[in-house]
Each structure stands twice: as structure tokens, then as C-alpha cells.
Amino acid sequence: MRLLNSDDRIAWIRLSHKRHKRERKRLKKKRGKQNHNQRKGTHPSFVLKAPEIFELIGSINHKLLLEFIEKLRDKVLIQKKRVRIDFSNTKRMVVCGTLLFFSELHRIERELGSLSLVSCIPPEDETAAQVLQHLGILKMLKNSCPIIPKHADVINWKTAFGEITDATKVGEILEAESKLPQIKAKKLYRGVSEAMTNVSQHAYMDLRNDGAEIVGDKGWWMFCREEDDHISVAFCDLGVGIPITLPKTIEANNDENMFKSILYSLFQDKKKYSDGELIRAAIEVKRSRTQKRHRGKGLLDMIKAIETTQGGRLVILSNKGGYLYNLNNSKPSEDIKNYKNSIFGTLILWSLPINRDAEVKS
Length: 362
Prior knowledge:
The protein is of the alpha/beta class. It folds into two domains: about 35-155, no CATH class; about 160-360, Heat Shock Protein 90 (2-Layer Sandwich). The chain has twelve helices and twelve strands. It has a seven-stranded antiparallel β-sheet with strand order 6-7-8-12-9-10-11, sandwiched between helices. It has a three-stranded parallel β-sheet with strand order 1-3-5, with helices on one face. Strands 2-4 form a two-stranded parallel ribbon. β10 and β11 (about 330-340) form a beta hairpin. The chain is elongated, with a radius of gyration of 28 Å. It starts with 5 loop residues before the first helix and ends in a 9-residue tail after the last strand.
């Protein structure tokens, strides 16, 4: 190895200094670009996998969907983090689950002013992709998926949403379903109208217990779909829920004795009632008030429409509870359900056969 003379050493030192200077300049430029990207909010998104099935009746699907929605709400609405929803494995979009997701997404958009923090990977399943496209969800998430909705069970979905008690849009949707007998349309319309009235009067009487601490929360969302000779109407609010509003309205109306009597007749003497049991009790409270004061028939109109129709179905989900009513072979059946996770609101689904042969003969 040759020893360097003084001139060579000086040249080597100068070269080392130049290299070091260039490296420092490169690193400084890289750090500046990273800081600029962070200021613009272009840091990597948190990838949130969507469930395979958007559905709320089955316990497992209910749990998976609500855990997904909770993560979305926490990351975007509370932490203000970027999220990329991965719908790759999503295969089924059922009315109740899809409506709840649709409502939550609209709420986030309203509170933040946009959905700029949320992007998505569209579903590989064609039908699921068509649903998201038809409902405008892919557009909301700035996804340019070229799929065109064409399946009948997709394009027949109609949507409405608002913030005040105005049943105009709901009426227009129900009137458009011309195959539905006029009497049933009227009963269904009155039920939906009452649900909307409840939103403005009771559902948002307090802060929603979801960690977002939104003051002045409001809104309702609705889907209507005709499929396989059925009409389905689903309505959702993101308020405090029936199990919370019911005791407060009971107290406000001085109906404590009536309420205690109803609870005892349904569930005997219990110290604590589940959300599902309180939803069931709310229906009986409506019956008692209607008989006593000849008003507030909307909720009962929904049930009566189903009680006179073979294959009719009513589902009420609120917070951690659920109530299901079905009429098959002229035999009514009901089921009270309780879940681990809360939907933090109320979702009501009516389903009625359209053909006239479904009428129950008295």
C-alpha cells in the first residue's frame, strides 16, 4: 500500500469534505421533503379492512361490522388520522348493516367538512362494488372505480337523508313504489313519519356516547328497496337510542306506574333490563298511550301493516339490543336480541310482500 504524500493527503481531505457536504445537503433535502409531506397530511394511511358481510342481525356479523365502524370513527373523526378502507374481501351488503355504515360515513363528512382523510380499495366482488357505486360511497371516497350498477337488487335501492322532521322525501319514495297497496303505503308512511319525528324530539336529547363529543348532533338516513316482490324500508338515526330515551320520556309524561306494570307483565320482577327488553317494552308503552290518549299511532301502524301480511317483518335495533317480529303462516313470532357492541343509535327495518295474495284473512 502506497503512503500518501502531503499533496495527496490535502487532496483526499478536500474530497472527503466535498462528499460529506453533498451527503449533508442530500439528507437536508430529504428531511425537508418529509416535513413538507407531513404538513400536507400525506403520511401513510392506516389500512382498515372492511368485514366480508355488512349485516347486523347475526351476532358475529354484528360484532365484526361494529368493530370496523368503531375503528373508522376513532381514527378519522376523533384522531383525525388518514384511513384507507380495504373492501377487497367484502361480498355482501345487507340493508341494515349498509345503512348504518352509510349513516356513519355521512356523519363523519358533515362534522369534518369532507372525507379527505378517507380513501378506499373497492371490493373484488362485483355485486358489492355495484352497491357501493350505486349508493355514491365510492364517489364520496374519491374512488374512480369504473363499475356500472346494473343488478336489479342493487339499482332498486333508493336513499333519503335529512336533519329536520320532513317526511316529504320519504313520501315521494313510497309513492314511487306503485305496486304497494295504498292502505299499506299510508300505514308505512305514518310509521316512518313518526320515526323521523322521534329523531327531532328525542333521539338527540343528549351526547352520543361514542367518544366523539359532538354538540348539536342530528340527522336521519333512509333506504327503500323493492326486491323479490317485497318492499323494504330501513330508517336510521345516530342518537342516544331507545334504551336511554324511553325512561326519560316516561318520566316526562308521568307514566312511571304504567311503565312498571308493562315491565312486570313482560319480564316479571327484574332489577335491570337489557336494551332488547327495553325496546320490546317501548312497543307496549306505545300501545298503552294510544289506547289512553288516542295519539302516537305511527309505530303501531308499522306493526299492524305487518300483522296483516304473510311474510311481513319488523326489526328494531337500538344500542346493544334488538327486537324482531315476523308473521309466517298467520303465526306471529318475536325475538329479543342482545349484543356485545352498540350501534349508538336506532335502526328500524320494515319488510312487506307486495302481492295482494299475502293479505291475511281475518
